[in-house]
C-alpha cells in the first residue's frame, strides 16, 4: 500500500503543478454565441439619476447609455472597498473590474501570446510577438468597472474565471457618493476607441450571465490531481505518525 501511495503521489504532484500553471491557457470553443463576435450595443438614454446604498454608504448613479456587452474574460480583479484607493474613496459599489475581448480578438488572434492582468483600475496587456500585436485590435478590448448593490449579482460576478464568455447588461453611468461635499463623480467611457486614463467603461449592472466556461482540460487535471496529492500526503502523514508506515 505504501508503495502504491508513493507512486500516486509522485504522479499527481507534478500534474497538479502543471495543471495550475496551464489552467488559464486559452483554448478554442466548439461553439460561441454570435454576439461575442459583434460590437457592444449602446444606446443613449434619458433616465434620471437615482440613489442606491451598499455597506451603509449611499451612492448617486447617473445613467448615460443603455449598454450590452458580450465578450470573453481575459483578466479581472475583485474589489472589497477595504483596501487601497477604494478604501480612501469609501467605494464599495464597484464590485470588480473585468477585462474582456470580442470580435476579431476572439477569432483571429493567438491570445496565448499575450499577458493580461488587471491593475487597481486598469487592464494591461503585452506580448513579445510582433505578429500577434499587429493582429490584435485594441478597440475590441475593454476594462469594465462593474457596479451593483444587488448581492445576487455580486455573487454571480465573483464566480468569474479567465476564459468565461459573459453577457453584461446595464447602463454606462457616472457615480459617486450621495451628498459628497466636492460633488466628485467617477465617469465612464462612451466609446471603444479611446485609451489611457478614463477609457474604462463604468457599468451599473442590471443583468449578468456566465454563458460558457472555457473548456480547458488542465483545470480538470488540476482538480483531480490536487485531490489525489492531498489525500496521499494525508495518508503518509497519518501512517508515519501512527508507525504503520516506514
Summarize this entry quickly.
This protein is an alpha+beta fold and 246 residues long. It has helices at residues 2-22, 84-88, 104-107, 130-135, 151-157, 217-242; strands spanning 41-44, 50-54, 57-78, 94-101, 114-118, 123-127, 141-147, 165-177, 201-212. The protein has 2 domains: 1-23 and 217-246; 26-215, no CATH class.
Structure report:
The chain is of the alpha+beta class. It has 2 domains: 1-23 and 217-246; 26-215, no CATH class. 28% of the residues lie in helices and 33% in strands. The protein contains 6 helices and 9 strands. The chain has a 5-stranded mixed beta barrel. A two-stranded antiparallel ribbon has the order 5-6. Strand 2 and strand 3 form a beta hairpin. Helix 1 runs antiparallel to helix 6 (217-242). The longest helix is centred in the last third of the chain and has 26 residues, at 217-242. It is globular and about 70 Å long. The model has no long low-confidence stretch (mean pLDDT 89).
Question: Kindly state the mean pLDDT as a whole number?
Answer: 89
Number of spatially distinct domains: 2
Largest sheet report: 5 strands, mixed, barrel
| DSSP helical segment count | 6
Q: What is the H/E string? A: HEEEHEHEEHEHEEH
Oligomer: single chain
Helix % is 25-40%
| Rough outline | globular
Amino acid at each position: 500500500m505504501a508503495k502504491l501511495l508513493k507512486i500516486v503521489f509522485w504522479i499527481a504532484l507534478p500534474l497538479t503543478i502543471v495543471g495550475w500553471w496551464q489552467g488559464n491557457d486559452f483554448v478554442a470553443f466548439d461553439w460561441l454565441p454570435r454576439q461575442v463576435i459583434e460590437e457592444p450595443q449602446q444606446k443613449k438614454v434619458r433616465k434620471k439619476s437615482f440613489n442606491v446604498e451598499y455597506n451603509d454608504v449611499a451612492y448617486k448613479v447617473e445613467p448615460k447609455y443603455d449598454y450590452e456587452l458580450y465578450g470573453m474574460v481575459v483578466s479581472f480583479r475583485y474589489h472589497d472597498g477595504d483596501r487601497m484607493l477604494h478604501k480612501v474613496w469609501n467605494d464599495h459599489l464597484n464590485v470588480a473590474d473585468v477585462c474582456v475581448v470580442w470580435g476579431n480578438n476572439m477569432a483571429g488572434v493567438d491570445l496565448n501570446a499575450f499577458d493580461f492582468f488587471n491593475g487597481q483600475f486598469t487592464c494591461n496587456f503585452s506580448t513579445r510577438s510582433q505578429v500577434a500585436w499587429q493582429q490584435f485590435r485594441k478597440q475590441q478590448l475593454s476594462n469594465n468597472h462593474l457596479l451593483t448593490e444587488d448581492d445576487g449579482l455580486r455573487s454571480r460576478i465573483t464566480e468569474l474565471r479567465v476564459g468565461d464568455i459573459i453577457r453584461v447588461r446595464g447602463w454606462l453611468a457616472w457615480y459617486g457618493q450621495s451628498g459628497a461635499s466636492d460633488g466628485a463623480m467617477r465617469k465612464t467611457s462612451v466609446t471603444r476607441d479611446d485609451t489611457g486614463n478614463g477609457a474604462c467603461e463604468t457599468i451599473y449592472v442590471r443583468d449578468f450571465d456566465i454563458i460558457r466556461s472555457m473548456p480547458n482540460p488542465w483545470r480538470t487535471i488540476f482538480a483531480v490531481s490536487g485531490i489525489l496529492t492531498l489525500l496521499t500526503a494525508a495518508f503518509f502523514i497519518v501512517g508515519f505518525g501512527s508507525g504503520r508506515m516506514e
